[in-house]
Amino acid sequence: MSYDAWILLIGSLVGITCGVTGAILVLRKMAMIADAISHTVLLGIVLAFFVTQSLNGLPMLIGAAIVGVLTAVMVQALDSSGVQSDAAIGVVFTSLFALGVVLISFIGDNVHLDVNHALMGEIAFTPWDTLIINGNSYGPVAVWMLGGVLLFNLTLILLFYKEIKISTFDPAMAISIGVPVMFIHYMLMTMVSFSTVASFDSVGAILVVAMLIVPGATAYLLTDRFGMMLILSGGIGALSAFLGYGMALTFNVSISGSMAVATGLIFTATFMLSPKHGMVAKWLRRKQLQQEQQKVSA
User: Fold this and answer.
1) What is the pLDDT of residue 138?
2) From the CB of residue 149, how many other CB atoms can be counted at a distance below 10 Å?
3) Are 188 and 24 in contact (CB under 8 A)?
């Protein structure tokens, strides 16, 4: 495959992986916890490096999953203790992320891990970091990592589809019929953690938030069906990668930044033109209603 094709494939995998998972967060009104986890998993990556002295994918995923779940547990504990949910997210997010930043300073400059790399990423370099087995190259490591995480997330969603759907729309009913609501909650946090750390090299922790939230919010304006929303969200994430890469080539700007901007442009267009929830459609319905009222009055 060509360099451009690898970039598009990696960007699309980021968009699909984060989009599908993020759609569930949007429906559960937990979008901002994605922001928290996307930053606090930095601590998990650093701790995994201290233990293994390696930046290989599996230790990073395990460390990120542990810290991601820890973030959710701490936020839940503070929320249950009377602290407002947004304040709880802010306290946990800043504390764990700051600890990760401090610990990075002990690693040194000879390791490919720093705050700028974790926050911003650089998708332009990922096609050159290939998986080598017995002297044979099997493509970029990012493709294998993102593909594995996507497969993992989709498997969990398919296995627990009904439980996720019920606990998302009616938690009280889910508890009453025996659905393990807390297990589903922490499973979702694990999925978010995996998606975030797998996307670090591609778009970084900050820009992955756009992929986690904006495609899901856009799909929410287009459909009222749970399954269709997951599909649309993943598709919008992939479309954003293609549009963003085209914008980056045209204007010679950051690729990952352009992909994030593309998510915002698609959301804006959907917000205006959505058949049911769009501003234009609402204006036309109000105009029609006013005309009908005028006819009745006459």
Assistant:
1) 87
2) 25
3) yes
Q: How far apart are alpha carbons 10 and 204 in whole angstroms?
A: 13
> If you average pLDDT over residues 72-90, what whole number do you get?
89
CA dist., res. 172 & res. 164, Å (int): 13
- Alpha carbon separation from 33 to 39, 50, 77, 189, 290 (Å, rounded): 10, 26, 14, 9, 42
Cα–Cα dist 28/171, whole Å: 10
pLDDT of 116 reads 61
The answer to whether the Cα torsion of 116, 117, 118, 124 is positive or negative is positive
CATH architecture of 3-297: Orthogonal Bundle (1.10)
The rounded distance, in Å, linking the Cα atoms of 60 and 125 is 19
Q: Which residues pair with 136 in a beta bridge?
A: 133
Tokens at residue 108, please?
């040194």
Residue at token pair 């729309």: 169
Residue type, 222: L
pLDDT at 8: 94
Quote the DSSP letter at residue 54: -
Pair of tokens at residue 16: 């699909």
What would the two tokens of residue 55 be? 């930046």
**pTM for the full predicted model:** 0.89
| Contact criterion met (CB below 8 Å) for 235 and 57 | no
The Cα 238–Cα 248 span in angstroms is 15
